[in-house]
Specification:
By secondary structure, the chain is α/β, with parallel strands linked by helices. It is built from five helices and twelve strands. Bound molecules: glutamine (GLN). The site of glutamine (GLN) has 11 residues, from helix 4.
């Protein structure tokens, strides 16, 4: 199984380490040709505005969007969730068309404020109980279309969703020792 981790910016090494611990080869995606032959893709946390711009500069944007639309399983965490979101509040207005927009949700960027935005909350993520959710300048999901499954809420705010082949999380599962979310993503790939 080949799982790509977008490696332009942000917390990609941590995702690759999680995959390695589960015996799966994580491939750093740095250019368009790296996307060939993948079974799954992880869009890591970091800075969505920078990542979106680099995806355009490196001519990877349309290819990733097409692969996801065609059913490639994708896990977007934090900035990765923002990149997937169809609508983004507080988007960077300087940046033309920065979002892939494949996930039919409205994401509020920097929803907890820029400085006070880091906290840990233990809660359920779908069938995964008491997961340590690490939030870092995190977004939350303000609205979802009807066919989006809500996996997780914190203080009534939606912070985890699944829509078909796409999982979007506002927090950072790769920052903990708990591998259950990566394991669930691998199982999703196997089932697809
Ligand atoms: N605030 C960042 C953004 O807008 C996301 C933060 C993160 O990925 N930890 O892209």
């Amino acid at each position: 199984m080949k799982i790509g981790v977008l490696a332009l910016q942000g917390a990609f090494i941590e995702h690759i380490q999680c995959l390695e611990k589960l015996g799966v080869n994580g491939i750093e995606i740095r250019q368009s040709t790296d996307l060939d032959g993948l079974d799954g893709l992880i869009l890591p946390g970091g800075e969505s505005t920078v990542q979106g711009k680099l995806l355009h500069d490196l001519k990877m944007f349309d290819k990733i969007k097409q692969l996801i639309s065609e059913g490639l399983p994708v896990l977007g965490t934090c900035a990765g969730l923002i990149l997937l979101g169809a609508n983004v509040i507080n988007a960077d207005s300087q940046n033309q068309n920065p979002h892939l927009g494949t996930l039919p949700v409205t994401v509020q960027r920097n929803a907890y404020g820029r400085q006070l935005g880091s906290f840990v909350h233990t809660g359920d993520v779908g069938a995964i109980e008491t997961f340590p959710m690490e939030f870092i300048r995190a977004p939350y999901i303000k609205d979802v279309s009807n066919d989006v499954e809500i996996l997780s809420r914190v203080d009534s705010k939606i912070v985890g969703v699944r829509y078909k082949n796409q999982i979007g999380l506002a927090f950072h599962p790769e920052m903990t020792d708990d591998l259950r979310i990566h394991k669930a993503f691998i199982n999703l790939i196997k089932a697809s």
